[in-house]
């Protein structure tokens, strides 16, 4: 009884300061690809035509209404993890991204919906695919890398770009270190035409109009700031055969501390794709450190945690 009461008091004190509940912010809201495309489109960024579906009926309807003249389509499973293209479904289907004939899209999408996709980032447990994103197949002539993130050195946004794309930035940095450019942005002045031009020059465009590309870079920066992003990564940023610059695939993360003023963006949150222990991580680490520092009473605390069913959540 005494031990249980002590544990309850420890937890209560950890969760409150001056009598007010405390919630640790992880600065990590992540949204699905189709949601990112929808958001970018609102800011005038070029994205592939696509529609998210969650049932067989929606798939057939989308193909008939949105893609009536398309011969090939791209079917993308939607989970909050990378490596989908090389992932494997537990039902045996290989790959979470497929380019298929239009009349076969409903079949492949049906094999993805409701199934578990395992990638390098999901761990062996994988994640359930609740939605599939069906997109037009673009005719690409060039793939590049583009990202905006926060730089600790300059205490502001920084744009990272590379004339090569389609693979991870780590691989690009290893293979093409001289092709990666970084353009820090003055947070008070905002992005200038000169800043955007430096980025476009670093992308080494083959066909897209430079002026239009500068405009796209500025719109991406506007989105980054307006939506309180911590990361806006487009890989690939592609040039199409009709000389358009298109954000073919994007990853967007947002600052959780901005949830109070970004209600529309945070409505995109998909709790089914998140680990319920994430918001408790700080408390778990605190208790772990207590066991190390308070060695004489550590085993008493361990026993209390076991009885309270906390032990299975602890990580070292």
Written overview of the protein:
Residues 37-263 form the ATP-grasp domain. Keywords: ATP-binding, Ligase, Magnesium, Metal-binding, Mitochondrion, Nucleotide-binding, Transit peptide. One of its GO terms (biological process) is tricarboxylic acid cycle. The protein is an alpha+beta fold and 316 residues long. The chain has three domains: 2-26 and 275-313, no CATH class; 38-47 and 140-271, ATP-grasp fold, B domain (D-amino Acid Aminotransferase, Chain A, domain 1), CATH 3.30.470.20; 49-136, Dna Ligase, domain 1 (2-Layer Sandwich), CATH 3.30.1490. It is built from ten helices and 16 strands. Strands 3, 11, 12, 13, 14, 15 and 16 form a seven-stranded antiparallel sheet that branches. Strand 1 and strand 2 (20-21) form a beta hairpin. Helix 3 (56-66) packs antiparallel against helix 4 (105-112). The chain starts with a helix and ends in a 9-residue tail after the last helix.
β content, as a range? Answer: 25-35%
What's the average pLDDT? Answer: 84
Structural category: alpha+beta
Task: Using the 3D structure, state the CATH architecture of the largest domain.
Answer: 2-Layer Sandwich
Distance between the terminal alpha carbons, to the nearest Å?
A: 28 Å
Global outline? globular
């Amino acid at each position: 009884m005494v031990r249980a009461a002590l544990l309850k008091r420890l937890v209560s004190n950890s969760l409150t300061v001056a009598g007010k509940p405390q919630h640790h912010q992880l600065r990590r809201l992540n949204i699905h690809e189709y949601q990112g495309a929808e958001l970018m489109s609102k800011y005038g960024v070029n994205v592939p035509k696509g529609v998210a579906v969650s049932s067989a009926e929606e798939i057939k309807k989308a193909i008939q209404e949105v893609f009536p003249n398309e011969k090939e389509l791209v079917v993308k499973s939607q989970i909050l993890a990378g490596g989908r293209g090389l992932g494997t479904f537990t039902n045996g289907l290989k790959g979470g991204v497929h380019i298929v004939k239009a009349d076969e899209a409903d079949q492949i999408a049906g094999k993805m919906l409701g199934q578990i996709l395992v990638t390098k980032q999901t761990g062996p447990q994988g994640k359930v695919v609740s939605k599939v994103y069906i997109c037009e197949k673009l005719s690409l002539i060039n793939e590049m890398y583009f990202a905006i993130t926060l730089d600790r050195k300059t205490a502001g946004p920084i744009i990272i770009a590379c004339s090569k794309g389609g693979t991870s930035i780590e691989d690009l940095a290893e293979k093409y270190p001289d092709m990666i450019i970084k353009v820090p942005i003055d947070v008070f002045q905002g992005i200038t035409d000169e800043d955007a031009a430096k980025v476009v020059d670093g992308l080494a465009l083959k066909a897209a109009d430079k002026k239009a590309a500068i405009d796209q870079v500025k719109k991406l920066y506007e989105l980054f700031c307006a939506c309180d992003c911590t990361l806006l990564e487009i890989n690939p940023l592609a040039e199409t055969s009709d000389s358009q610059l298109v954000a073919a695939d994007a990853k967007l993360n947002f600052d959780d501390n901005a949830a109070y003023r970004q209600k529309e963006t945070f409505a995109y949150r998909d709790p089914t794709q998140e680990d319920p222990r994430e918001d408790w991580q700080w408390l778990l680490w605190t208790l772990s450190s207590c066991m190390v520092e308070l060695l004489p009473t550590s085993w008493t605390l361990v026993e209390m945690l076991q009885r309270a069913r906390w032990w299975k959540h602890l990580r070292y």
